[in-house]
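Support case: user asked for a sample of complex input and structure output to validate their parser. Sending the pair below.
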Amino acid sequence: MDISQIQNIVIIGSGNVATQLSLALKSAGKNIIQVFGRKESMAKCLSSKLDVDYITDLKKLKKGADLYVLAIIDDALLDIADHIDLDDELIVHTSGTVCMDVFEGHFKNHGVFYPLQTFSKEKNIDFDDIPICVEANSQESLELLLKLGKELSSTVNEVSSSQRKALHVSAVFACNFANYFYSIAEDLMKDNDLPFDLLHPLIKETAAKLDHHMPNEAQTGPARRNDQKIMNEHLKMLKDYPDYKEIYQLISERIKRKFHK
Amino acid sequence: MDISQIQNIVIIGSGNVATQLSLALKSAGKNIIQVFGRKESMAKCLSSKLDVDYITDLKKLKKGADLYVLAIIDDALLDIADHIDLDDELIVHTSGTVCMDVFEGHFKNHGVFYPLQTFSKEKNIDFDDIPICVEANSQESLELLLKLGKELSSTVNEVSSSQRKALHVSAVFACNFANYFYSIAEDLMKDNDLPFDLLHPLIKETAAKLDHHMPNEAQTGPARRNDQKIMNEHLKMLKDYPDYKEIYQLISERIKRKFHK
C-alpha cells in the first residue's frame, strides 16, 4: 500500500449504510469498482444505483483496491471477514460499537470509518453535515482515512474504539431514547384528541437551543424548577398510564437530584 | 363587552412570557396600554421596551381595555386575581397547567391564551411558528381570542383545560425530559474527551424526522431492534455511571415491551 489518496473502493454490504456511503463516495469523485451483497436482489439494486458490477461470492472479490468498506451488521462482521482474502490492502468497518481490533490477525492494514447518523435507504442524506469518526492501526492508514473523510464531510475526527463506544451510548440517549419520549407524548396527545404536530415547534426549539447552550445549562421544566405542585398535577393526570407515571417520577427525581444538590 | 376585535391590551406580569407575548402583540399592531409588574425594575424594563406606562400597584389598573393578559407564575395567579377589579372586561391567563375555572367567581368574562413554547427574555421568538391554545367561558370571548391568536400565529387551536394539561405533560416528556437525555450524553462525552457538538446533526435529524414520521414509526436503536449484544456492551460501558445505567436499562426494557409485544 503506497498511495497518497484513496481512489478505487470496493463496497462490501448493500444495506442502508452501504447505500448512502457509497453514493456519497461516488459523488465525491471516487471510483466504486465493485459491490458485494449476500442477497442478490439488494446487491443488484445498489450496483445499479452506482452503475458498477456486483458479486454475491467473496471469492470473486477484486484485489488491489485502495479501500474495502465493510458496511454490514455487527454480528456478521467476523464471519464475512473470514472469507475475505487481502494482502496489504486497507479495510475498514463502519460500526459504532465494534472495536477496531476485531480485524487483528485478519488484515495487515485495517481501521474504522464510522459516519454518525441514522440512515435509511430511501432518504438521501447530505454527508457534509455528518461527523465521521475514523481510526486506523497505522499512522499512514489513519491519514488516508482522515483525508477521505474530509472529502465527504466538514467534521472528521480521530476517535478511538472506546471513545466510539461512549459516543454510541450517548447517541442512544440523545436520539433513540429522546424519540421514545416523543412516542410517549404521541400516545398521550392521541388519547386527548390533540394533533401531535402541536409539539413540533417546541421539539425543534429544544434541539436548536443546543447551538448556543449546553444541555446542562438549557435544562428547564417543573423538575428543574423543583415545582412540586405542577409535578403532582402531572402525576395525577398520568394515573391511567402506570408505565409513563413511573418514568415521569424517576426522570423528575433524577433532574432534581442533578440540579438541586 | 361588545367588540369585534381585540385592540387595547393590558399586560399583567413582566417575566419571559409577558415580555415575548407583549412584544409580539405590539408587532401585530395592538395597543399595549399598560404594564403591571410586582418588581419595579422588571416592570420598568418591559414598559420601556413597549414604550408604555407601568404600574406596580394593581389599584391603578386602567379599566375598559379589550383584554387583560395575566402572564405570571402559576402559584401567584389567584393572589393577583384577588386584587384585580374588573366589570365585564375579558381576562386570560397563559398557563399550561392551571384550569380556566380558576377565574370562576372572580371575573365574568375569562379564558386562557397559552402559547406552547419555551421563552427566554433575551431571545426574541417568531410567534408565527408557535401554536397558541385558547379557551374561554363564552362563545363570544372564544371567537375574540381565536381571532387574536390568528393575528400572531399560523396555528391556533381551541384546547380544553384537561387537554391543555395533557399537552403540558406531553411537552415535559418531549422537551424537558429529552433535554435531560441530551445532558446525560453531554456528561458521557465530556468524560471521554469528545466534543458534544458531534451529536448535533443526529439530534436535529431525530427531531426533523417528525415532519414525515410519527415517533412510534420513527423509533430506532438497539432496544427497538432487540439487539441484546449491543445493549450488553453499552451497559458494560456504563458500569461507572449507576444512575445512567439504571435509566438505560429501564428505557430499553420499555422500548422492547412497547415494540415487541
